[in-house]
Design a protein that fits this description.
Helices cover 61% and strands 6% of the residues. It is mainly α. It has a 4-stranded mixed β-sheet, with helices on one face. Strand 1, helix 1 and strand 2 form a beta-alpha-beta unit.
Amino acid sequence: MATPMELICWGSDWGLPSVHTDSLIVMAYARFSGAQLKVLPIDLTWRTLTGTVPALEFDGTTVTEPVHILSYLRKQRYNADYELTAKQGADTLAFIALLEEKLRPALLHTFWVDVENYSNVTRPWFASRTPFPLNFFLPSRLSSEALSRIMLTKGEPPLHSISEVEAKIYSEAKECLNLLSHRLGTSQYFFGNMPASLDAFVFGYIAPLHKADLPNGQLQVHLKQLTNLGQFCDAIIKTYFVESASGLSPASQDAVDANLQKLTQLVNKESNLIEKMDDNLRSSPQHRPRRSDLKPSLISEERNSSMPA
């Protein structure tokens, strides 16, 4: 039996398979392309938190970063972009670059720099899933890295203070969301009726913003006004990730159905065996069961009289 591909990622919450943008991108693309991944969420027993997440491990190879992981999956013949035209492929690259440049800085600020969101949502969540003693400083380190990345990419002159940079990144993020909403329109996905890599990237970027309960969410408020993007996220969750009515994912439900079929066969086999035993029992000599016509009081008197004095 072939060794399954393993994906190390941050775990699920908020109704999402992962709260982490890059992890969501890879998980969504895997579902779109049919790649079977064994998901290994980071938890209190994870071996290390020094590596890059998400990380795909297969056959002695470790691949990190969504772009590289998706490329690796394509080489394994899991290609969600197989039916795209050359123009659609070029549009995909352009939109992914737009997401990285315009939307990611605002998401980093929303979850990792904004004091209210970081203190009440982000830090408690990541700390609760990080081994001791890393839970004391890992969230702070990630927050510092987020702020440094924002200032490095968006803090060019004449924008020097974080307040000036904040105003710029949120303005650009809202424009990016508007463009995505306009491009999606009334379509189910960005390139027709089947999701592709661009859908995975957009889902990974906006799903946490769509589902998280943020105390300070100016960008979240703007996203909620773009109803087609919210419906886009909900449709992907429902189609590819939502648990069924029995509380199981589609893959788990298939396993349950297979086990149920085996159980049904076993029950039918046992029923046939019992029926055969009944037939053999009926054909064998039988003793009639003894039935007493005496009343309980008379039975008691009869027993007393038969007992020795």
